[in-house]
Amino acid sequence: MTFLDRLVRAPTGDPGSDAPAQGTIAGETETVRRIVARLEALPPGRARFLAGFAYILARAAHADLDISDGESTVMESALVELGGLDEAQALLVVEMAKLQSRAKFGTEDYLVTREFAGFATEEEKLAVLRGCFAVGAADDEISNDEAQTVNQIAKELGIDRPSLNAVREAYVDRFAAIRAARRLARG
What we know:
By secondary structure, the protein is mainly α.
């Protein structure tokens, strides 16, 4: 029985059972299941966390309808540093998340983010938010579309406005709107 089978089937010893497994999150999205299936060697909760984390980063990267090499590199680094994956695993997870983000663009974004919010700690939610800003800034400027998407992600994660603003402060010089306002002010 594969990890995915254990995740979605009851641990009754009956391999033919279609009952949901205990511990399976109700409404777990197909997107997260596909990524989780590629990480069978990891504990189920950790794989679910990494799948959601990577998808949310890919969502932020894809906000402007393009995922650049720089954004991919930042996503991979985040999964190595914060996710504890080796480089090969991080590359695989990022590529899977990018593929899912492009294929499911918009249709599962909310569901995946809310699912992640349901099991992530507050610190993990803030870590993914910091990662989203870092991904947006990978190409030196956070576009208005990227900023709007990251704000929406923060809302879906249940991050309050003061916490969002504290994270955003580190990237204030990278926002396209701020840069445009400063150029106008200079004349």
